[in-house]
Amino acid sequence: METANDDHLKLLFNVYNKLIGARFYDSKGLNSGVSVRDTQGHGTHTASIAAGNQVTNVSFFGLAQGNARGAVPSARIAVYKVYWEEGCDAQDILSAFDDAISDGVDILSVSLGGEKSDDYSIDPIAIFAFHAMQNGILISQSAGNNGPGPRSVSSIAPWILSVAASNTDRKIIDKVILGDNTTLVVRMTRCI
């Protein structure tokens, strides 16, 4: 476990005062060059959903214009990175939960999904979340990456607030003109 010292993280620590702590966990030592730095955008994405500052006049190339912000822009973030390309280990998840409880966090946004289990005694996230809940911490977890379909939600422990992605009926329609002057109509549905 180490603390971040990356220039990008220093900017978040020192300028924005948004990121107040960052740790990583790699109990098996499988990851060379381990760092809390977000290498695939997932951590940045989930952090902005939770606590992103308001940004005005955002759009998708001029379409779907509006304002964007996280759920609680005034919140500050402590990062506990447990997931790697190889997956994650229950021991690392436990360590991160214990550190978050010890650090006095108010909410844990757990962007980890696992195999669905109706037996809470073998689901490490459900077990650790119960311990955090007993310490007054609200746990919000990804509902999972399967579905949509019956019984496709993997986060089902009743003490966890399960959050799922959705979409809206907003369709973005635009034209693409190719070099030979062929015009194509492009339709996209924006996921939220």
UniProtKB/TrEMBL annotation:
Peptidase S8/S53 domain location: 35-169
Write out the entry's keywords from A to Z: Signal
What superkingdom does the record give? Eukaryota
Q: Name one GO biological process term.
A: proteolysis
Give the protein family: Belongs to the peptidase S8 family.
PANTHER family in alphabetical order = PROPROTEIN CONVERTASE SUBTILISIN/KEXIN (PTHR10795)
Protein name from the UniProt record = Peptidase S8/S53 domain-containing protein
Source organism of this protein record: Coptis chinensis
